[in-house]
Amino acid sequence: MNIFVARQPIFMRDQRVFGYELLYRSGDGNHFQETDGDRASLCVIRNALLVIGLDRVTEGKRAFINFTKGLLLNGAASLLPKTVAIVEILEDIAPDPEVLAACRKMRQQGYTLALDDFVLRKNECNPFTEVVDIIKVDFMGTGPEDRKTIVEQYGHHPGMKLLAEKTETREDFQEAMDLGFSLFQGFFFSKPVLISKKDIPGYKLTCLQVLKELNREELDFEALQKVIKRDPCLTYMLLKYLNSPFLGLRCQISSIKQALVILGDMEIKKWCSLSVLNQMGKDQPVELLRMALLRASFCESLALKVGLEGKKSELFLMGLFSFMDVILGRPLPEILEDVPLQKELKEALLGISNAYRKIFDLVVAYERGRWPEVIRLAKDLKVQEEELPEVYARSLDWLSKNPLAL
Known about the structure:
Helix content: 40-55%
Order of helices and strands: EEHHEHEHEEHEHEHHHHHHHHHHHHH
Strand order of the largest sheet: 1-2-3-4-5-6-7-8
């Protein structure tokens, strides 16, 4: 059985990560009969823990894990550490006495329970609200009045947290904040809030100029050094990063020029771009940079699998640049006009089909847990499906050690 596991962040009000919902599935999941569904889910959870490891996927944060009725009843939660796992009760489970008793038992054992896709029903009380710690509300599927009523009814219960899921825009996030939700799930943090060019802070314009110089077809090193020196913070951070044990260089780097000699053109472009992106993203949620780093590493790691080993740095830059519109608050096509990336990279980032774009689409599909699409794209790229989880896990390991992501 091929096991796929990805994660989606869940944020607190200050946009720090509270935990991750694990998006998991067997590659053969479509072939199970309904009667075997609970056994299949149990197998996926067990294998996800043993093959990938919960600590690798969540980095010590809380893990929201979907439970079917069968998993609730057969005590599958005992496989999971109660300090990390949050048992998520799926919306199609009926609150019959047997299930409610199992939920009470788990809470007594110290487990945290969450109710998925809660729907407010007039003149009807949902018994699950008495046995869970977190209520997840589909923000897109619930009307404004119902959202307000849910907060009024359940938001003040001792120990109860309300989670707004499918908050896809900054406006959704702000509305949920104003209503009183305490947790937030969705991709609001990875969508750009557009601003005018004149509102871009000066340090970001300097960083953008560095990116322009870094990505010229022929690197003009004197021009690059001149631009970098305009920002002492960037110079310090870049040299500190290049000298970190993470890169494993055997000698001390004392100048950008020395780094170029040791690393070569493409690697200096990669690592300088990474440092610059970190500097540009300092006013954004930390998870945004972490997501950019994870995507960049995942893209790079697939290079060997698809016969593009010589293009690893380019694929890394593709993943990194895919978040540039969010970091700068400008449309990506406009940004790419200013930065002379390679033609194939630009086309891939703009959605034009080529070898790079297919890898990008596979990585994004994996991030979002769109498993049928992952399987189709892997087949198209001639990537062995069963290798993807370990490639993803290695990227998570790389992320956990990267000083820029800490």
